[in-house]
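Holo model, pyridoxal-5'-phosphate. Inputs:
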Amino acid sequence: MPRIYLDYNATTPVDPAVLEEVVNTLKNYQGNPSSVYEEGRAARILIEDSRDLVKSFLDAGNSGEIIFTSSGSESINLAITGSVYAYMKNNKKKVPHIITSTVEHHAVLNTFKFLESIGAETTYIGVNEFGMIDIEEITGAIRENTSLVSIMGANNETGTLFPIKQIFEEVKKVKEDVICHSDLVQVIGKAHFSLKDVPLDMCSFSGHKFYALKGCGALYVKKGVNIEPIIHGGHQERGLRAGTENIAGIVSIAKALSLLKNIMNDELTRINSLGSIFHDKLFYGIEGIKLNGNPVNRLKNTLNVSFDGVKSETLLFNLDLYGISASAGSACNAGTVSLSHVLKAHGYDAKRIESAIRFSIGRYTTEDDIDYAVSAIKKGVLKLRTGS
Ligand code: PLP
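Output:
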């Protein structure tokens, strides 16, 4: 029985070339990068070279700095909480107002909830049934004390792409000093992105979504943007993130992005075409299914689909028996019975949400995998619908 992995939005396997680089790093760089003797200096050089590679991937030039973190979640926490703390410190404890969307990952939403609990004012902008956000609603929500707007680049559950270039351009027109942050965890590696195109002050990434190691992430911070650290201790990461650096994780990010830079065009062409094939075979092959999210503006690697009359958990269980890995809602919600907040925000009814499954493909998915998966999904859906 083959195992067909269709959950690349949850995490990606480590690329073998990244793994080789990581093993090499672990073997040959044992020093503490803060030490001044040779072993420390060698590790420090590796980190700074990795930082330069990440900056180059993002077309950051000398516009800002990369801060390495432990995850996408930590990058997001540092960006949002760090900027709110800095605002309060620099504005004599004035209450900050921050804006986001209702379909963000919990790393953003729960950071907002935390900041609300310590007095920040918050606004959540909703989406329509196609996952689209009204830009005027965002700009209309900006107040005199608005300090930050955080809107994700692509949704992890539906793959819906947000027009972040337009959004942040309009935000800046209304209030130049609002800090613009984007959670790009699902964008990097799945779509083209350049800091030259989007007026961002900060953006967050996660290594394990683009074939690097799990447990490492990065935050881009533009020069002049004030943030306070949220982890206190040593002076690592430009004084913004204390703790001895995860050298292997950092190297894995740099290596994965260097690889991506070379293969991105071909990889995206292949995955997008495979995504369309997957979509067509599913929709022509099975009746009573609905695509969740945006049918046009979405990452083509992601298919979030509701199967009429089928509970997603039962279908996932059956698919697992056929060797297929996929998820209901986002992976980070796994194990909880609550309905996906993302699909609820689209206004879908409970039945549609309870029958939603997210399939996400990537670097190692083949057309044979798609064919096998479609036939297994058909069998599983038929079995559950007929009760046989
Ligand atoms: N943001 C988005 C859109 C995500 O999909 C995820 C993970 O699924 C995160 C943030 C959190 O990233 P990490 O798992 O590195 O903490």
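The pocket of pyridoxal-5'-phosphate is lined by residues 71-73, 105, 107, 152, 156, 183, 185-186, 206, 217, 332 (CB under 6 Å). The chain has a mean pLDDT of 96.
Archived with the compound record.
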